[in-house]
Design goal:
This protein is an alpha/beta fold. The chain is 34% helix and 27% strand. The chain contains 10 helices and 14 strands. It has a 6-stranded mixed beta sheet with strand order 6-9-10-3-11-12, with helices on both faces. It has a 4-stranded antiparallel beta sheet with strand order 2-1-4-5, with helices on one face. The structure holds adenosine-5'-triphosphate (ATP) and magnesium ion.
Length: 268
């Protein structure tokens, strides 16, 4: 059984502009794979190409199968996608939103999953609340609960399922960032696949097994966090000095981005 999500030579044009230029990307089930890179570098576009939401050249293979040959229901049973932003126009309760994941994943057998998913994202007791009345971070965690409901069991009949998350911690406080990243790690540890677009490079270093760094529609670097998150690579890609150190004893890279003004004054 092939247990990868793979993008081969993906190019995407939006409007008149080619925004992805022959991108190759592989994520392994059992691992958390982060996609990082500056605004506009093509992270969301790469995810949308891999989930079939945007027309692309090249091939996407999910657990070894070409997604172009798969039916929407087959894809929905194998992978769940949390978009960068979701707006809900109708007055739904939190539980109604999370239950949408149950239907998408064809796993109607266990109707307790949505409540378990809400507990897992720290929203036990929120089921009856109106979605629109929640804070931004709470809404984001409801969306994650919907997504994990869809692919609740990380492995089904020997096949890994996939969480594909576009900035899942973007509006979360630090405690809930850890809750969500712990969830991602646990999903991977139980055999599932996780691909997450991230901006926080320290969180990425702590939680990701593999990192792909995007720059201007191409892959600038890929590998484990120590290999990708280096002073030279980050300074070149982000255009500012980002000295990288490592924590003892686990040797996890940590970064302290330095504003130019701060460097210029040399103040402590
Ligand atoms: N519909 C569109 N038409 C034209 N250009 C687009 C369209 N959607 C996105 N782009 C461009 O494609 C490029 C990649 O966008 P993408 O959303 O993939 O970036 P990103 O890496 O996810 O950035 P961010 O960190 O801001 O979310 C950007 O330059 C963007 O302006
Ligand atoms: Mg994006």
């Amino acid at each position: 059984m092939i247990t990868t999500l793979e993008a081969r030579n993906i190019s995407v044009s939006l409007g008149r502009k080619e925004v992805l230029h022959g991108v190759n990307f592989t994520a392994q089930a059992g691992q958390v794979t982060a996609i990082v890179g500056p605004n506009g570098s093509g992270k969301t576009t790469l995810l949308r190409a891999m989930t079939g939401e945007v027309r692309h050249q090249g091939q996407v293979r999910l657990n070894g199968a070409d997604v172009a040959d798969m039916q929407p229901w087959e894809l929905a049973a194998l992978r769940a996608v949390q978009p960068q932003s979701s707006s809900i126009a109708f007055p739904f309760t939190v539980l109604e939103i999370v239950r949408l994941g149950l239907r998408a994943g064809l796993s109607a057998a266990d109707s307790t999953v949505p409540l378990q998913a809400l507990e897992a994202v720290g929203l036990g007791g929120f089921a009856g609340r109106m979605y629109q009345d929640l804070s931004g971070g709470e809404q984001q965690r409801v969306q994650l609960a919907r997504v994990i409901t869809q692919v609740w069991k990380p492995v089904v009949e020997g096949a890994p399922r996939w969480l594909i998350l576009d900035e899942p911690v973007a509006s979360l406080d630090i405690g809930h960032q850890f809750t969500v990243m712990d969830l991602a790690r646990s999903y991977a540890a139980r055999g599932g696949g996780v691909v997450a677009v991230m901006h926080d490079l320290n969180l990425t270093a702590m939680f990701a097994d593999q990192v792909t760094l995007m720059e201007a529609g191409q892959v600038a670097a890929t590998g484990n966090p120590c290999a990708v998150l280096t002073d030279a690579t980050l300074a070149r890609t982000y255009g500012c000095p980002i000295p990288v150190n490592t924590t003892p004893p686990a040797e996890v890279p940590f970064l302290l981005p330095q504003a130019r003004a701060y460097l210029a004054t040399g103040s402590a």
